Request: fold
Amino acid sequence: MIDSLKQGNKTTLFWLFSLLAVWMAQATWIDQLNPYYLSILIYAGINIILAVSLNLVNGFTGQFSMGHAGFMSVGGYFSAFLTTTYLAKNPELMSEFQSFLVFLGSLLAGGTIAALVGYGVGLPSLRLKGDYLAIVTLGFGEIIRVVVLNLDVVGGARGLPNIPGFSNFGWVYSGVMICIFVIWRIIHSSYGRGFLAVREDEIAAEAMGINTTQVKVRAFVIGSFFAGIAGGLFAHTLRYLNPQTFDFNRSFEIIIMVVLGGMGSITGSVVAAVFLTTLRELLRPLQEWTHIDFRMVIYSLMLIFTMLLRPQGLLGTRELFQRRKQLEPGVTP
Amino acid sequence: MSYKKISVQNRFFTAYFMGLLLSQWISGCKPHALSLSQGNVREPSAQNQATIRVGEVSSMTGSEATFGISTHRGIELAFEEINQSGGVLGKKLQLMTLDDQSKPEEAATAATKLISENQIVALLGEVASSRSIAMAPIAQNSKTPMISPSSTNPRVTEMGNYIFRVCFIDPFQGEVMAKFALNDLKVKKVAVLRDVDSDYSTGLADYFTTAFKKGGGSVVIDESYTSSDMDFKSQLTAIRAKKPEAILVPGYYTSVGLIARQARELGLQIPLLGGDGWDSPKLVEIGGKALENSYFSSHYSTENTSPKIQTFVSKFRQHYQANPDGMAAMGYDAAMILADSMKRSKTLSKQDLREAIATTQNFPAVTGNITLNEKRNAVKPAVVLKIVDGAFHYQTTIQP
Reply:
């Protein structure tokens, strides 16, 4: 007991240090970086949050959701709507502390609204299993997009321009650290075993006294919350939102990251998100030489080969830097 | 317990923080920019480079690929011409094109790459307003002049003083069709069928409605569809019930062709009206006979006998074995105005180039004489084309 507490404190300390390191980097050398590499780094960070949060639903709880981009758009649109129309009409007149508070508040609000929508979607649909759940979440993702498309207050099809560019490396990687920390701690807690139990065998889990629907909905709500945060960060990085960005292709991209990294591996999702984000950019020079867009062909071929050679994903259910083999399915600690 | 590991982590962090403190101490108390700002981008030493690099972000693939490829061909043709006649200030122009798959976020990344990695002097793009709006803050923050060939949404050039366009804007285009409907077609009752998926279509529909009502006409019904729709019969039946004298369909050519066919099947023989989104040879391939006697506004007409247009049309046909549509002409004009500004510019620094582009006066372009106004928009006439026997025929010119 005391031993595990010590261990917990140490991991918390580790994450706090990482958070501090991120902001130290932001304050010192990160702005000297080439803006192109910096923007890849930032988009990789946003993709990490999306992939890790979807992994909680798809990988750890075993519920195949295909509507993650929908929750991302809810969070993104809500936080951007708050900052553009109410809180930060003149971002250049605001002090740094003010913009810090405004951005933090709107991010959390966006995440909360996304979580609420996740709850509303999850409660009826998570009683379904497998393919049915996938189709329902896919449908809900599209509904969210079409609703946004017809909302004139956020620009509808015209999109939402002039979003203040509050987001930066520090914000995005704080989001990454917090997201990974929260999901890591949930999965490693005794409560989190419930998530894994639902994935392994729902009937057995129910027989052991786990409220499976509740567990599934909670995973869904937490996943949606972080998707909303990622959406808010995305909106304030790109400074323009368009409903087109959040179509089901975006959901598939996130699913691909989760599957490629390994369903049920947080570090796997991180590696896959970084890998796929940079791969798209690494293949750009090829396009400049050949004038033909080979990127998508190579990207797809790599996915096909990974799935053929390593169907469980790059890391399977294991983690990088794993200390104890306590998470293998069926192995009790 | 893994004490060893943790102490390794601690040592790593200690080293990291020491390094950070050291670097901060060395670099002094420099002000740090919050996001991409001019300070981070190395100023391109245009004087030292063998060629002048110009970036282009284009929708070579994705939903608006036809327009993107047309624009790219126009730009390519212009660059070839400029380089054959000796280039600019004794240097050749080098075009660097990146595809954005018709996605705003890709356009932003592509623009960032071109500006910070490839050190371009100016940026050409994008066709669609949504992508131009995503690119504009990046161009503005790095103080890189950006010329959009055909983004007609007024917001694009409002993003900053480095953003220009060589086309007219949606309010004007809406006004053109409203004027044409009222004065030339002499209709008073018009139905609107807009594409809610497209920023371009909804914008144009709104501006047309305002101008048409101001001129004394009335919009009897406002129906909508989404760009993936294939069946428009319910909307068209509702429109038929209101007995309008014309239907405004400000969408892209793919849907318009289908709408025209289905309207004729329902017995609606009234003319259809549209904007430059119609301007593609594919329109008649899809719509066929149903589009006869319909009208749309565009940037220029290939029928115009002015030598400027005819040489462009024949050169384009020779190169690509295709008729240049409006987008190709706009791409060509954007590149030509950029080259002209480079010749007039004091130096090839981005600031001087911006000044030169801003003072473009009466430039003899393919799509009419272009003057850039104080809002960095092109002031120039629009033409209305009529579809007769599957070909676009010049109908009238409407002055701003």
